[in-house]
Amino acid sequence: MSKMFSRIAMTNSIVLLLFSLTFLEHGLLFQRVSSLGINYGQVGDNLPPPDKVLQLLSSLHINKTRIYDTNPRVLTSFANSNIELFVTVENEMLPSLVDPQQALQWVNTRIKPYFPATKIGGIAVGNELYTDDDSSLIGYLVPAMMSIHGALVQTGLDKYIQVSTPNSLSVLQESYPPSAGCFRPEVAGVMTQLLGFLRNTKSPFWINAYPYFAYKDSPTKIPLDYVLFNPNPGMVDPYTKYHYDNMLYAQVDAVIFAMARLGFKDIEVGVSETGWPSKGDGDEVGATVANAAVYNKNLLRRQLQNEGTPLRPNLSFDVYLFALFNEDLKPGPTSERNYGLYQPDETMAYNVGYKEGKATIDVLDMRLFVGHSHAN
After folding, report:
1. Which of 64, 126, 213, 335 is most buried when burial is the number of CB atoms within 10 A of its CB?
2. What is the pLDDT of residue 35?
3. Residue 116: is the preceding peptide bond cis (ω within 30°)?
4. 157, 123 in Cβ contact below 8 A?
5. Is the peptide bond before 323 cis (omega within 30 degrees of 0)?
6. Which domains does the chain have, with CATH numbers?
7. What is the pTM of this model?
8. DSSP-derived secondary structure letter, 348
9. Which range is the signal sequence, renumbered to this chain (predicted)?
10. Beta-ladder partners of 85
């Protein structure tokens, strides 16, 4: 009997969350053109110089890229281009940037000299802080974000540059089904502070979401087509009855439900990293050229269709593909060095646009889809 009442209570709770989220999606949020960006990592000793990278990105008609620092060479090279940069404050810098004066100095030296010639649209304060091995930095995150935002206000840049932080999907205690999405108890308190900041500054919640990891850990339980966006029966959330035909959208909706459980129903979600490795170690199931090509091709197709998730069908969301290059100095398993669409010599790591010698996608002039190889 107690289990039955527990299920009824769970169902009623989700119905209330769903009603409020649906109202917001139809009433307050509006359709906008989604944007595809790409992560430009630089953990390699053989990567092309930033000016060459700019030429490559421009040839692909990609207008947003994320870097993991504020590299002056990149910021200078991207000046007067059409590409918007999402820059990063390194994790170890957070304690000093809690001080408003230090944050102002950081903005005055790392951002202001390059803006507006270089289009800087966002600052990521740290990366995956809530699940980093060094938990001592967690308490500095929101205060540092507040100080940096305050510095942007002082310099008149807050109208142009958002402040947020990318989170690992492992901040969730539950992500399946999506309507059960909730944050881990140990981060719920600090997550409330973060979400309050994001709401007040109208900034998105960024998530690093990799369906590949879920498949690698349970290849006999999770259908490959479901994680690759291929045609498949999908799954139906038993509480909301929403149908999901791919895991990425289910993960995004799980984050939306988790925020709603903390009382935050009106914050946009963006995917700051997602991708698939083209090579891996023997125990890294699914890390193949074929799967990487299919995942990225299908994801790009979905972005061109300007889709939302089942929970927010009328609100498209930004996605940053990981990554532009294979980076040979990244630590960890082989897969970590093989997420790139391109090799360091600017040849394609694999082709995401050809099938039997013919382009599979003829929408827009995006050479990434039609097998463009950018030579030096």
Report:
1. 126
2. 76
3. yes
4. no
5. yes
6. 32-66+165-342 (3.20.20.80)
7. 0.88
8. B
9. 1-24
10. 65, 120
